[in-house]
Design brief:
By secondary structure, the protein is α+β, with helices and mostly antiparallel strands. It has helices at 13-18, 44-57, 65-85, 92-109, 115-122, 126-151, 158-167, 193-211, 217-224, 228-231, 247-253, 298-316, 322-329, 333-336, 363-369, 409-439; strands at residues 33-37, 40-43, 175-176, 179-187, 236-241, 266-268, 271-281, 284-292, 344-345, 352-353, 356-357, 381-384, 391-402, 405-406, 442-444. It is built from 16 helices and 15 strands.
Length: 462
């Protein structure tokens, strides 16, 4: 239902959620201050938690982690302090989205897909787990926003990209993984009216139970809503602007006035909802909802895939082209007007391309494409739409494939341009940190000073 934006940040869930006190037997102390940056302390336990999280995520260190990690934490504190001075803030909805992403990831990786198992593993409720992550998420998002402000808009010229590539040693030329361009045609199985009426009947029943005071809306959302990311919070979506929500959902959400009432049934591209107002703040609204999706029968799914197989045969027999079929028949509105060509959007940079690395494709599409030759049209297969969670039938055509290779200016200009832009950003941040070091009080425990730091200047000599 939302348009999600993902950011990367350091989170030390495994130790932090468990709430364990880290004890260091070697010097028989529970904890100690190892760095002080401004008026902020970095504790030995902070470093240890970050190190354990890095091990959990498989992060390699090019050097001593007990040197690298404290410096990274110190840089983060410099950025957070500057963000406070510059009044940089992140919205509550952004924090909620980030926490959602991390909770969902750990539900899959630690809980085996079950929130209940994750709660049992950590012996904490879902609410307690989320609260543990909240400040980590806020700090990570704030640091990203501060960096973006420091860097501004970085532009590089083609001449700079060519110069960078020309000066690269042969063994430093980046390796570009295999990339593909894929066209897709999607058909959605018909859902019987009886199934839609069944879903609406269930939602009406939930609304009546809330209105009569028999059950809390949040309890029903937790038990029955098929929007799992909000269900674990009792259906709460978080503060959203109108443009961040499905239009049909937004129209009803922003018209609600009484938090005690439940909306009429709303149909969006994601399914059917009932909505309850929590709070309005200017042009943002916080609601909770229950989402139900009508189920597709196996018979309809089989029938729809058979129709797509027939279309694929006609394309192979040159009765019409894949491009024409996609434009006329496909029910995937994101690709239909582009001859079925799938588009890959980098959520961090906003760069759009038709090329995908295999791991960036939807899993079901990648499995099919991996076995295909260029120009080949697949047999029909089922997949779950990443956008709305609905089961659909699809066929794909492998339009082009560039095997993994060392980068060249002619084929990989955009990738090399991105590398140069990132290097320029790193240089700007590096320069800012060196300057900030001179203006900030820093004290490092003598036992932690014997390091080769990325940013010289932490230890000020008299």
């Amino acid at each position: 239902m939302r348009k999600f934006i993902n950011f990367r940040f350091i989170v030390t869930l495994v130790l932090a959620v468990m709430g364990n006190v880290v004890i260091y037997a070697q010097d028989n102390v529970i904890d100690e201050v190892v760095w002080v940056v401004g008026d902020e302390a970095i504790l030995k336990s902070d470093v240890e938690e970050a190190r354990m999280d890095a091990l959990y995520r498989g992060r390699p260190f090019n050097g001593d982690p007990y040197c690298i990690i404290p410096e990274e934490l110190a840089v983060q504190k410099l950025l957070l302090n500057q963000a406070k001075l510059d009044s940089i803030e992140v919205s509550e909805s952004e924090v909620i989205q980030q926490v959602d992403m991390m909770v969902n990831m750990y539900v899959e990786e630690v809980g085996g897909g079950s929130m209940e198992k994750l709660e049992e593993y950590f012996n904490k409720s879902a609410t307690q787990i989320r609260e543990t992550l909240r400040e980590n998420a806020r700090d990570g998002l704030t640091v990203q926003r501060m960096k973006s402000q420091l860097v501004g808009e970085v532009k590089v010229t083609p001449a700079e990209v060519r110069r960078y590539f020309k000066d690269l040693p042969q063994d430093s030329i980046p390796y570009v993984p295999t990339q593909v361009e894929v066209q897709i045609i999607v058909l959605k199985p018909k859902i019987p009216m009886s199934e839609i009426e069944n879903v609406k009947s269930r939602l009406r029943d939930y609304a009546d139970r809330v209105t009569k005071g028999e059950t809390e809306f949040s309890t029903l959302a937790l038990m029955y809503s098929e929007d799992k990311s909000s269900a674990i919070r009792g259906g709460e979506v978080g503060f959203m602007g109108r443009g961040m929500l499905d239009p049909a959902y937004a129209n009803v959400a922003f018209s609600l006035q009484d938090p005690k009432k439940v909306s009429k049934i709303v149909e969006s591209e994601f399914g059917f909802h009932i909505i309850q107002l929590i709070e309005k703040r200017g042009d943002r609204v916080n609601t909770r909802h229950i989402l139900l999706r009508p189920k597709v029968s196996e018979e309809e799914l089989t029938k729809t895939c058979a129709r797509l197989d027939s279309i694929a045969d006609d394309i192979r027999n040159n009765k019409f082209t894949f491009d024409d079929a996609a434009a006329v028949l496909s029910q995937d509105k994101d690709t239909r007007n582009n001859h079925g060509l799938m588009v890959n959007v980098n959520e961090n940079t906003g760069v759009t391309t038709s090329r995908f690395e295999m791991q960036d494709l939807p899993q079901d599409v990648a499995k099919m494409v991996d076995q295909m030759n260029v120009g080949e049209v697949s047999k029909a297969f089922t997949m779950v739409s990443e956008k709305d969670g609905k089961e659909v039938c699809a066929i794909v055509k492998l339009k082009s494939k560039i095997n993994g290779h060392k980068a060249t200016i002619s084929e990989d200009y955009q990738a090399l341009k991105s590398i140069v832009e990132e290097k320029r950003k790193e240089e700007i941040i590096h320069k800012w940190i060196l300057q900030k070091q001179k203006q900030t009080y820093v004290r490092i425990n003598p036992k932690w000073q014997k390091c080769e730091f990325k940013y010289p200047g932490w230890i000020k000599r008299d």
